Amino acid sequence: MTDSTSTPSDEAAQNAALQKAVIVGLQPNQGRHVLDEAVRFAQLLRVPLVVVHVDVTRFVTYEDPDGYVHSAPIDINFDAGAAEFEAVQEAAAKVLDLTDVTWTARQLVGDPALAIKQLANKLDAQLIVVGTRKRGFGESVREFFTGSVAARLAHRQHRSVLVVPQGEPVPDSQKEIWPESAE
User: Fold this and answer.
1) What per-residue confidence (pLDDT) applies to 148?
2) Residue 51's pLDDT is what?
3) How far is Cα 167 from Cα 9, in angstroms, rounded to an integer?
4) Cβ-Cβ contacts under 8 Å for 138 (sequence gap 6 or more)
5) DSSP assignment, residue 27?
6) Which terminus of the chain is more solvent-facing, meaning fewer CB atoms within 10 Å of its CB: N or C?
7) Which residues contact 103 (CB under 8 A, 6 or more apart)?
8) What is the mean pLDDT of each run of 10 residues along the chain (183 residues)?
C-alpha cells in the first residue's frame, strides 16, 4: 500500500494507523539492502513500515496545529524532489508488494535528520533505519557541512537508529573513510 499525504485530516488518520511503525529513509538508486533490513524489522516487530524520502530542495514554511506541514521550494526547479519521491516509491513498491508488510510512503521536506525525527515523534516509531553514505569527495563535502544524518538522529532523539552499510566496506588499512579524490 502506498500513499502520499495530501490533506491534514488524511494525515492525522494515517498517523493513527501507523503508530509504532518502523521508518526507513531512502534515496533514489539506493541499494536494496537498506529497505530489506527495514522490512525485516517491520516483520519482526509486526508493525507497519513507513518509507520516507526527504526533499532537501524544499523547506518548511509553517506547520498547522494538527501537524500538517506547509513548504516552499528553495530553488525554482521543484520538480526534482517530486521525481525523486516517485523513484523511491516505485523502487519500494517492487520490493514491498511482494511482502506481507503494511506500508506507506511519505515525502518530507527540509533537513533530513530533523524531518525524520519529527515524523518519528508523530508516529511514536519503534525504529529508524537509514543507510550509510556512498564514499566519494562530493559526499564528504556534504557530510562536512550537514553532518551525518545517522549520527544526528542518534544524538537528537531517543529511538534506536539502525545504520545499514552500503557498498564495499572501507579496508582497515585505509586511514580516511572518504578519500580526497574527485568522484
Assistant:
1) 81
2) 98
3) 40
4) 183
5) -
6) C
7) 1, 2, 42, 48, 49, 50, 51, 92, 96
8) 56 90 94 95 98 82 59 57 91 96 93 92 96 59 58 89 83 74 48
Around Cβ 121, how many Cβ atoms within 10 Å? 13
Q: Dihedral of CA 74/110/183/145: which sign?
A: positive
Question: pTM here?
Answer: 0.78
Amino acid 142: pLDDT: 47
Q: Which of 156, 91, 88, 47 is nearest to 38 (CA)?
A: 47
- Alpha carbons 75 and 92: distance in angstroms, whole number: 27
All three cell numbers of 118, joined, read 519529527
Give the integer Cα–Cα distance in Å for 175 and 158: 31
Residue with cell 568522484: 183
CA pair distance 174, 122, nearest whole angstrom: 41
Within its chain, how far is the Cα of 134 from the centroid? 15
- The C-alpha atoms of residue 121 and residue 20 are separated, in whole angstroms, by 10
Please tell me whether residue 4 adopts helix, strand or coil conformation: coil
The CA distance from 88 to 24, in Å, is 11
Residues making up the chain, counted from first to last: 183
Cell of 85: 519521491
